[in-house]
Amino acid sequence: MEDYGSSDEDIYSSDQESYDGLENEEADSQWGSSTGNSCKVITRESLLVAQREDLRRVMDLLSLREHHARTLLIHYRWDVERLFAILVEKGKTCLFAEAGVTILEEVDVDSSVSSSTMMCGICMEEVAGSEVTKMDCGHCFCNDCWTEHFIVKIKEGQSKRIRCMAHKCFAICDEAVIRKLVSKRHPDLAEKFDRFLLESYIEDNKMVKWCPSIPHCGNAIRVETDEFCEVECSCGLQFCFSCLSEAHSPCSCWMWELWTKKCRDESETVNWITVHTKPCPKCHKPVEKNGGCNLVSCICGQAFCWLCGGATGRDHTWSSIAGHSCGRYKEDQEKKSERAKRDLYRYMHYHNRYKAHTDSFTQESRLRETIKEKVASLESRDSRLRDFSWVTNGLYRLFRSRRALSFSYPFAFYMFGDDLFKDEMTNEEKEIKQHLFEDQQQQLEANVEKLSKVFEDPFDGFEETEIMDMRMQVLNLSVVTDTLCKKMYECIETDLLGALQFSSHNIAPYQSKGIERATELNGGRNTKANNNITCQKAHDQTNGGSIELVHPSGCGTSDESGCSSRKRTRKDSGGSFFDLNLPAELVDRN
Prior knowledge:
Residues 1-35, 553-574 are annotated as: Disordered. Residues 116-330, 120-168 form the RING-type domain. The protein is 45% helix and 8% strand. It has 590 residues and is α+β, with helices and mostly antiparallel strands. Strands 6-7-1-14-8-9 form a six-stranded mixed sheet. A two-stranded antiparallel sheet has the order 2-3. The protein has a two-stranded antiparallel ribbon with strand order 4-5.
């Protein structure tokens, strides 16, 4: 196990390149989080564009109609790369069968039926051929039965995968036919059906989630690589993409859920009641003793012994209660009381420190405007110093380090407690790991406090030499806190969570430049000109079996991969947006 107890002097000896990188790390985004292109904001207007981008990739590769491509993507949760992997591994036939896609090339699947009359297999009535619809699977029923079937399924919330009515047929119905039949009788349900299809890109896609802002901003966030990350929406909300709660790294989502529940439900108040009160044996309400006599009375009128909790009569002397004796020692009850006290004090230790750092973070966040004014005052002076980016960079380094430090206490509460990992390590191993982690935590805490103190000084009135000294101090402390944060995360990911055998906890990785701010999706994924995807159309071998795909190395769904979406250019008529209730085919025609 790596020794994380390095001294401050060792960290202070960082080379000059660290300082240079620190001064320039946020030149592109002053007073804000880091920017990047690995997560995108999907607005109401760009949702259809993002969905059709993936649809087009599948349609072009497999030569499918849109509703078949959508059925495949919904079944595989809009994971295009997983769909392609299953296609290569199992073949087209298995891929289609698992998703309920039926394509009968030798059977005429035109929805219109040429015969004059036929009997519907559902209502058993003779109907005209023009009033009958045939699905891709070849099953044919009257329009009234189809419409009733579709209406029931839409009302039940099964719009995204409506199956054929035939017995033991698992084929998914054509969405264009559903839209056509339902709109004649219930136009509102047809709009609801279209909305469900559109929003399935978010609801069923593990890499796309709604922003949890309240009130809701209407945006969704799409990540390209790892779902265990923290992002910032364009509305300014920072949150954990995995559990949609506030950003809580280095706590895992499970730990944070338990911690918030513990604080929200005031479960420790119940713990306090266990320690300082005893239940009435009659009404079971908690009773607190307010005198020296061990014979206490509840408001319900029941008298009981404070020592053992047993119901008694009211006759007593100074030394004893008539007809009652509880002088025998009961070890279990004593242990239970001591355990409750120990758990309470342990929780208070971690909660007090978590709360203190959270309050400090709130107070330090208010320094932004004050620091801006001080920097503006220094820039207006006639001095050789013109670049004060180190002030803003150091301030945001303080914010990030303080935030990580505050959430490290709930992590330690569960990591070294008996709630989650009791069977993962022995008491000796737990003690060693706890000491190593707490050494890291204390070093980070000490340097964060030093950095915080520097920014509280009235440096706008300093002389030039004092400002130069402060600059070196801020740069030194910023490098130290950043290095200590990285080492603390390495300790957590490698030595603590990485060593678990019976459970798995994932945390968002440490980002020196802060939580990444998502950029707006404008017309789909950006592609590099020299790294376009080349998906060689598969040549079906006998019975349409295996499919061969040729991908360049590094091909994926992210912007960096350079995968072309083959998306048709969006036509803008008078600056208006797409109507989300329009069928995709109609959008293309328009």
